[in-house]
Request: fold
Amino acid sequence: MFPHKNVKRKHYIAPYVDGGAAPAASAWLPLGDGITDISDSTDEQTDDKAYYSGDGTVTTRITGIAGSYDFSGDYLSEDPAQALIEDMKYKLGSGRKIWHRIVRSDGKKQWEGHATVSGIVAGSGAAETDEEFACSIKFDQIPAESVPSGATIQSAALNSTPASGRAAKADREEAK
Reply:
């Protein structure tokens, strides 16, 4: 098992329509042209407590997750995904909503949901440099996890099974 390159992880966006109807397959735009860096800036809310029933040790629980990604690179006004985001720059409320889909670098899992775009930069920088593009895309709720079309359910399930479970599954299959 070798790690996958970041370039293999794919991000797609699609316009959001009031009511939250899922976009058509043709509406999804790859957000990659001109993008040089994508940083996971997911925020986790925690709750630290110690209980009298224990030994006083503080226990940390994750109580909330806000999945968020920061995109940066060169501004390409002709790129449809960058143009969709640029058009949101001076909008408020639902005018900043999109659909966001992330396909894991091995192509076996994806996450999808409504999101909000903020921190939009579409054309900025020093005179002698290329125009910059940047934005943050934050899921409005925990995104739905699924298997991308083209990936097999068996391979995705195997990939999400702990290593000890993989060995047990291999033993069962071998016994057949």
The chain has a mean pLDDT of 85. The beta strands are 10-15, 29-30, 35-40, 43-49, 59-66, 68-74, 97-103, 110-122, 132-139, 144-146. DSSP finds three helices and ten strands in the chain. The two ends are 26 Å apart (CA to CA).
